Every structure is written in C-alpha cells, then in structure tokens.
C-alpha cells in the first residue's frame, strides 16, 4: 500500500480516523462482520458524510473513498494498524492518541510564544 492509497491507514490523520469511527459507531457498526452485513444505503451515507466532512476541506485533502469494498478494506486495515477488534476500541485508542497529539501541539505553541516574547 502506498501512503496515498485510500485504504491505507497512514493516509488518514488521527482526526480522520476518529471521525470515521464515530460515524460507524453512531450507525451501530461495531465489528467488521457488522459492517459487511449492513444496509448498502447506510454504508453509502457513511461514505458520503465521511468524504465530504468539513475537516477534509480545512486540510485541502481530497478523499476518494467511494465504494463499500473500499470502506470494508479501510476498516479492516485500520483494525490491523491499530491492533483493535471493534469500532469502540478503535475510537477509544485514536481518541487518546489525538488528545496526546493536541497536547503536544499546545506545548509547542507555548514554547514558540515564549520565544517570541523573549525576542
């Protein structure tokens, strides 16, 4: 998988993965089996909400995920990448990683701000 492959977890930020896991969770899709047996219209709605989300527009990121097969492959790859078995586990893992990421950004900005003040 290349880094721009739409089913490669590395193509997606923690925020992106958290968004997808929230969409799946709110649609009662907790496992790969549940995803595979879900209503096609529901899955296409999830794909549409995910790919057209404002967070991608803010990043100027185009996500070309468009088929159920791609969604299933991405979901499976995310489970392997993050070593989890359920949507809730994925969401929890990514949530705490995202919090850590944001805390690091805040610390970096504090340091940067302090340097500017000291100039």
From TrEMBL:
Designated name of the protein: Uncharacterized protein
């Amino acid at each position: 998988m290349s880094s721009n492959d739409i089913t490669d977890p590395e193509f997606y930020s923690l925020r992106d993965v958290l968004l997808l896991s929230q969409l799946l969770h709110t649609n009662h899709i907790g496992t790969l089996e549940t995803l595979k047996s879900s209503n096609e219209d529901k899955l296409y709605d999830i794909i549409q909400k995910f790919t057209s989300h404002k967070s991608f527009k803010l990043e100027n990121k185009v996500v070309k995920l468009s088929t159920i097969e791609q969604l299933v492959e991405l979901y499976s790859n995310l489970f392997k990448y993050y070593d989890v078995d359920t949507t809730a586990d994925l969401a929890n893992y990514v949530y705490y990683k995202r919090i850590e990421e944001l805390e690091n950004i805040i610390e970096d900005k504090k340091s940067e701000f302090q340097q500017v003040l000291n100039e």
